[in-house]
């Protein structure tokens, strides 16, 4: 027994064409939704700023600059995998007045704890200063003697107030 299918103007069965049209339409809808989702996420990331503090890499370079300028170091123990560190970078350290205040009174130094290789300069600093984990902020003199420290996420106001009291 043959099933009779209605034909379109070109003589092709109407059912097959409409299936492919529906597949194509849904593909366009899904691709469109994914594109909108990507744009929304991209906009959210763009709204969160980038860290603009001119961090020096490592304590050796920071100590050298601290001796030359007479400014204490602000040492930022951070890691790529640390959520609060990334939030500090995008919300606090992305503010021009915060970057200016830090640069004016301190030598900003970053100690990257992302790769925790035993014996690396970063891990030696972590052990030397007893850093429990990132984010940790320590103000040090040119010889590496700690003056004051903070552990964990800091609000913009709390960080600036602490730095004002330390200098």
UniProtKB/TrEMBL annotation:
User: What InterPro entries does the record tag this protein with?
Assistant: Thioredoxin-like_sf (IPR036249), Thioredoxin_CS (IPR017937), Thioredoxin_domain (IPR013766)
* Keywords from the named record: Membrane, Redox-active center, Transmembrane, Transmembrane helix
Which Pfam family name is an example for this entry?
Answer: Thioredoxin_7
**Highest taxon above the source species:** Bacteria
Q: Is Transmembrane among this UniProt entry's keywords?
A: yes
Q: Where is the Thioredoxin domain?
A: 33-167
Q: Can you tell me where the transmembrane regions are?
A: 20-40
Q: Which PANTHER family match?
A: THIOL:DISULFIDE INTERCHANGE PROTEIN DSBD (PTHR32234)
Protein name, per record = Thioredoxin family protein
